[in-house]
Amino acid sequence: MTDRFDACLAEVLRQEGGYADNPDDPGGATNMGITRKTLAGWRKVTPWTPLPKTAVQQLTETEAAAIYKEQYWQPVAGGDLPAGLDLAVFDFAVHSGPQRAVMTLQKLTGVPADGIVGPVTLAGIKQKIALMGLAGLIDALCDKRLDFLTNLAAFAVFGSGWHKRVAVIRAAALAAAGTISTDNRRETMTLISGYKTYIVAAAMLLAGVAQVLGIDIPSMEGHSAGQLILEAFAVIFLRREIKTGF
User: Fold this and answer.
1) In which residue ranges of the chain is pLDDT below 70?
2) How far apart, in Å, are the Cα atoms of 49 and each of 29, 32, 40, 45?
3) Quick one: DSSP state of residue 82?
4) Domain ranges in the chain with CATH number 1.20.141.10
């Protein structure tokens, strides 16, 4: 889908930035993530070395988009992937190659890792999402991507930036999928559970104080004021479950 390609490309371009020629980067002269060698191949310049670096500097966003669509988006079948997963796979492909991105996804979904996205791979993706959810698959793919990057020799130089990139792409992918990560969901539920505990404790404390003041609360019948207050403070300070006969 054109809209999804445009949205994913915009995120990728934000990560790639403009022109750079870092001597530590094996890609050499690069603009919007398009290396000199990639641009030479696109323009059918053989060998690629005669293509001047100025050609990379003058690369337009329109030409860059065409390269991304034909050489990265289409090979990973971005248009056939669920929103969010398309971005995670696409950016992985741009950063480390389409075949690696696809094969990593295929291994996660339990289908033959041939680097080609076809009906079998798409069916495997659907089955995996049914089992672990879209967020779970996006998280797993990003985790595997980080595992791969961590073992590269250039990690010592670029590791911090790579970690940040994967984190940003993960968050954007999960947002596009309309969900949150498994870890974030777990943290959210823990936070909610904690607040519920304190709310219960506060209610018990108020009920105990009310009984001291001579106000009867039907739902608290059978519990003395002292017991309610003691249990409330126990919950607040010890964060333990309220136990009968505390």
Assistant:
1) 1-2, 179-205, 207-208, 211, 216-246
2) 11, 19, 8, 8
3) P
4) 2-180
